[in-house]
Amino acid sequence: xxxxxxxxxxxxxxxxxxxxxxxxxxxxxxxxxxxxxxxxxxxxxxxxxxxxxxxxxxxxxxxxxxxxxxxxxxxxxxxxxxxxxxxxxxxxxxxxxxxxxxxxxxxxxxxxxxxxxxxxxxxxxxxxxxxxxxxxxxxxxxxxxxxxxxxxxxxxxxxxxxxxxxxxxxxxxxxxxxxxxxxxxxxxxxxxxxxxxxxxxxxxxxxxxxxxxxxxxxxxxxxxxxxxxxxxxxxxxxxxxxxxxxxxxxxxxxxxxxxxxxxxxxxxxxxxxxxxxxxxxxxxxxxxxxxxxxxxxxxxxxxxxxxxxxxxxxxxxxxxxxxxxxxxxxxxxxxxxxxxxxxxxxxxxxxxxxxxxxxxxxxxxxxxxxxxxxxxxxxxxxxxxxxxxxxxxxxxxxxxxxxxxxxxxxxxxxxxxxxxxxx
Length: 423
Fold this sequence. Notes:
Layout lengths: L1 H38 L2 H41 L2 H33 L16 H6 L5 H8 L4 H6 L3 H18 L4 H22 L2 H15 L2 H7 L1 H26 L2 H8 L1 H10 L6 H11 L3 H14 L2 H17 L6 H14 L9 H12 L11 H29 L6
Helix pairs in contact: 1-9, 1-13, 2-7, 2-8, 2-9, 2-15, 3-11, 3-15, 3-16, 3-17, 3-19, 11-16, 11-19, 13-19, 14-15, 15-19, 16-17, 16-18, 16-19
């Protein structure tokens, strides 16, 4: 009992140390980036940014290295432990019900605030470099219903793992786990081996997370070296300020709902996920904290079979911050071009976004691709995506952190519903 108590008292210290290191890394990154931006030539600063961002790239690639095997092993073991198809269906139904409700509220919030604050009205488009949108708009050419379905269903689990297509890995893992559960005791050696493998991978997470402050430092320094934040803030003050109002209101709703279901445990949950939230914020990648979030939710008291089932689904279907941004950005672009969208059209856009945004978590700059594709469907110039590209990185910091909070909350609440918690 003494040993257990000692280990429990050490964990918060380790967590706070990592959090402190990341916060210091963010501060130093901002400081270094500003110094480089103000004292180096634009060309030298851009070259420096490319090199320093390699630190973030190394960290994110280290995380990506373990995501596929972690999702596969934990999800298969989790389904096998659930025991039967009815349990999987029951928990899956609750999960999807939560995900779609949260997505609808997030989309609705984005639509509400962009109509109230009208950040795009009266915007000057003369200085917008439309060529910068080409990278995103080119991706929308292949964005169709057929490709959407193809993106969900894997043609090869090896290819899905190689490209970290989380939803495709989830689909295969569900079939594999259900098949293993149906075989019964004959599948135990395989399940036990995968269970041991998942614990080894989670141990790797501890090693990888030691690189988190370095990765955050590189990501922040690289951005501030080539961006004049003060100038950006002046230019996009109304857009960024309106976005922050929207994302803040979403946080308020998420925290209130969390307190409603978890009570005082909501505060403990927030302490547990501080580190993943800051890493996601600093690297603009919710995917980068998937393994760490898995570990922290289990420490919080959610049974591993619930965490391993819920989180992979959440990363495909429950991106609350990104959802709020999608309606906000789409209608903002319409406002900037003076296109009046009726309330009915906006609600239609909302439901289109609800469907098209599912399962695109692995697509680079997924939110922008979906926004551009949606604009095209509603006769809004997709080149308007160039309006938000300069400030998108800073918006993405808040989106990514919100996605992490939403998934942590969904996993905890469903775990409590299923009485699969240790609190």
